[in-house]
Amino acid sequence: RLFCRKPRQVRQLTTAKAIVLPRPHGKSFAHRSELKQAKRIVVKLGSAVVTRGDECGLALGRLASIVEQVAMLQNQGREMMIVTSGAVAFGKQRLRHEILLSQSVRQALHSGQNQLKDMVIPVLEARACAAAGQSGLMALYEAMFTQYSICTAQILVTNLDFHDEQKRRNLNSTLHELLRMNIVPIINTNDAVVPPPVPNSDLQGVNVISIKDNDSLAARLAVEMKVDLLIALSDVQGLYDSPPGTDDAKLIDIFYPGDQQSITYGTKSRVGIGGMEAKVKAALWALQGGTSVIIANGTDPKVTGHVITDIVEGKKVGTFFSEVKPAGPTVEQQTEMARHAGRTLASLLPEQRGEIICCLAELLTEKKEEILNANRKDMELATTLGRLSQPLINRLSLSTAKLNSLAIGLRQLAVSSRDSVGRVLRRTRVANNLELEQITVPIGVLLVIFESRPDCLPQVSALAIASGNALLLKGGKEASNTNKILHQLTQEALSIHGVADAIQLVSTREEVEDLCRLDKMIDLIIPRGSSQLVREIQRAAKGIPVLGHSEGICHVYVDSDASIDKALDVVKDSKCDYPAACNAMETLLIHRDLLRTPVFDQIIDLLRTEQVKIHAGPRFASYLTFSPSEVKSLRTEYGDLECCIEVVDSMQEAVDHIHKYGSSHTDVIVTENEETAEQFLQQVDSACVFWNASSRFADGYRFGLGAEVGISTARIHARGPVGLEGLLTTKWVLRGEGHTVADFSEQGSMKYLHENIPVPQGSFN
Question: What DSSP assignment string belongs to 522-533?
Answer without folding.
Answer: -SEEEEES-HHH
